[in-house]
Amino acid sequence: MPERDVCIIGGGMSRWGVREASIIDMAQEAAKECFDEVPALKKKDVDGLLFASSYCGRRSFQVNIAPVIAERIGIKPTSMCTRLDTLCAGGSSGIILATGLIKSGMADVVVVAGGEKLYTPQRWETYYSELASIDHDWDGAQGMGLPPPYFSMTAQEHMKRYGTTKEQLGAVSVKNRRNGSTNPKGHFQKAVTMEEVMASRVIVPPLSLFDCCPITDGCAAVLLTYEEKAKELTDRPLVYIRGTAQVSLHSMSMNWPGEHLADWLHLRTAAKRAYEMARVGPDDIDVAMTHDCFTISEIVEMEDLGFCKKGEGGPFVESGQSDFGGKLPVNTDGGLLSCGHPFGATGIRQAREMLHQLQGRAIRQVEGAEIGLTHNLSGLNVEHTILIYGREP
Amino acid sequence: MPVPGVPILDGKYPSSMDLYPLEAKEFNRIHQFYENLRQKRFTTTKCKKCGHVPFPPRVVCPKCNSDDLEWVDLPTQGKVLQFTEEVAGVPLGFEAPLIHALIDLGEGRKLVSRIINCKEGQLKEGDAVKLAVFDIPPMIIEKKGGVMDEAKRVFFAFEPVKR
What we know:
- The structure holds 2 protein chains of 2 kinds.
- By secondary structure, chain A is of the alpha/beta class.
- Helices cover 36% and strands 17% of the residues of chain A.
- Chain A has helices at residues 23-37, 56-59, 66-73, 90-104, 123-128, 148-162, 166-180, 194-199, 227-233, 265-278, 295-304, 313-318, 335-339, 343-358; strands spanning 6-13, 48-52, 80-84, 109-116, 202-204, 207-208, 218-226, 239-247, 287-289, 371-378, 383-390.
- Chain B is mostly beta strands.
- In chain B, the strands form 2 sheets. A 5-stranded antiparallel sheet of chain B has the order 5-4-3-6-7. In chain B, strands 1-2 form a two-stranded antiparallel ribbon.
């Protein structure tokens, strides 16, 4: 069978936040919205499920959750039914794998879903469990499981080396919370002012409360299929997956691959590969969803994704280049800072927003957007994952 | 000690909740690292075939796949390049301020470690720090006949060198 072009045709999200619901409940909410977007699809057409969740084993006491989700949402996969875990990039990993399966003919119609129930009945367990997110025996045992200290050092390095200011960090938060204020599915619907950001409580200097994404429950789901099937199932413009990359150069902090903590070699490596596969460059990207787990992350990402020069990420965001009306709007649905970050669901949330942007029906629409990029970093900045979407294959 | 909600766990050691490594030799082939640590030595494995010295220690050389490895010492003193003092949201098992530093150990190695025996506001960039070894709670391992064996453990951080 010749290679097939792969399209994303539908997307859904549960409500995200501190939810009075289980992961199984939220997966059903997300899948319902996804199926509702593609009324022509019959559930028997779906032959694959990839479910991204890192914490279902620890916090929902459920491993091998994919068959549970498949049964609850009413599908009977015949090509693939599995869970995957890339922490913060799990959802994007699922989309990459589904693309390969569909492109090769091993699967035809795949639901990629994911999510987490991170809030446990007692908060100590919510925070304590985070220690499993990183290289457990070495960095985890040093108390590095909650990432603010590591990104604090990244921010310090960026400030010292390039003169980045706390206001420039804050500009990311103000933009993303404003973008998220009209997203009914996100954790927050409240914009914040620069004054509020600057006055917010310090978490780890120089990072304050609004520099950090919250801990969030939620699920998301998207539907992928090959081009001909997509044309049968939807009248909306087709959105193709054009380029992908996932790069892992180290795990333990001692083996950090960059020259310094604000030098993300693994991100640049991923970007180069994804751009080449998609036959585009950074200047071709009309809209991006990048991994703003912390404000400093989005600033470094602007640089190492090639949207601005190294060291100029601070002025780039401060001058509105990553906002509507600028060079390319980034995190148009609010990003992690406003939507929250139920790890396995985040890449799928980004894909859903990208689908809506490239189909011209996003809540905050980037006019004429044709090519978009989504990006995740995982764990203690140990892995970078990129997808490039386009209106042409 | 009673475990509310899960009374069947009363008095049990749930290793899946243990933030420290399962160091005991029954569970860990790099057990020697912790034995060396107990002697205040900071060590890793060196490949006898190709000479590669990775950290953390391995059971197989990641470069040449040889499993003929030996233990070698790493520096136990370093210099603080950067540090953070976490005052809020410190995970259970650690106390605020939770101080972490990027330490230059020399030999081209930089390590992120916790800094202990140090008050908030005391540490400065460029400070000398040295390895600190401390006891952590033992693992309770079930032996034949249901006998419970205590495997003592140590772990490490770094601490300021007194001037």
